[in-house]
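Forgive a beginner's question, but would it be possible to get any protein sequence you like and the tokens describing how it folds?
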Amino acid sequence: MYRKTDVFLLTAHVSLCRRCSYGIAQHGAVLLLLSFFLFLSACSGISPVPTRTSASPEKELRAELPKKIQDFATPDKIEALTPRGYYQYRLGPGDLVSIQVWRRPELSQEGIIVSPDGFIAVPRIGSMSVLNRTQEEVRGMITRKLEVLYVKPEVTVRIQEFHNNKAFVLGRVSKPGVVNFPGKGTLLEALALAGGIPDQSKETSLTKCAIIRGNDTVIWIDLQDLLKNGNMALNSPIRNNDVIYIPEASDELVYVLGEVVTPGAFQLKNGMTVLKAVMVAGGMSKHANPEKVFVIRQQNVKGDVIMVDLKNLLQHGDFSQNFSLMANDIVYISPTGIAKFNYALEKILPSLQMLNLGTTNLESFGVMQELRKQMWGQEGFVNSSGD
């Protein structure tokens, strides 16, 4: 009876050891796999590195409103592009002209329209080209042709309507289209003839307009300086057929990424700062790390990365790093360490189930038996089902 009890206890002890060795092997593999996935999750996350590249003054990160990134025309450049000398209007398509010959009513005529190809029809002369000619040049041409038929004719040419002193105003104006100037045209006059700029709410950002002249000249005008500061040196003269384009405010975007409720691209609004951009994106999520918020601003080839501590801003009211944003800035909110761990855990759980299934199959085929024999000198199968 004593020997049977010993045999029973010995058998139970061996079975318990086998089960323990099986559990140790399985849990050791689980811990190894867990460490591996945590290592991968730490390596795969986005972690911007703060840098300070040699940024131009226009692109420096600062709390006040930044300067513009466009190369705006200076008053000297505008003056250099303005024709010098006495201004003379030149006839073109659509102009309305009247011709008066003294004591010759049969030769006088009102309301002569310049054709699209620049010709007019004159009594006793026929068609003649007046395209890009001044009023005095046209009078001289008619006089010389009439002198063949009449003795010292006295000719007067008058322009009734001007249609060849025009500009095309496009973009963010009340009435985009063609505007005609009665005299020398300027940028402000063109904007006024186009109905003016629509009502600017505080949420829009209107900073610039472009004057496109010919095939190779683009003049960028700083509207903030012209309209708000009254710098009339930027009120550029407009030449015939100039195109004035005012970009829509929606053309300028900032990008908010990372741990926010609704990441994406958002319209750059007037005076938008880092904190405002985060709030526009729905605010920080519960996994956000407010101590590590990054602003990435593109320079030439390399960008500038600055870390902003929003926690310090909210706790102590330190707005020194609440930078004003510019077009195409990127705001990235980093996740916390526990958020990275949770993400890794979500990826690991399916793998743990596969591991448990794999070790059960290996036990059935005798692989785990051979492994225990080599490592601990144990023999036999382990019934993982507990039977």
Notes: The longest strand covers residues 288-298. The chain has four domains: 2-43+355-376, 47-64+252-335, 96-161, 166-248.
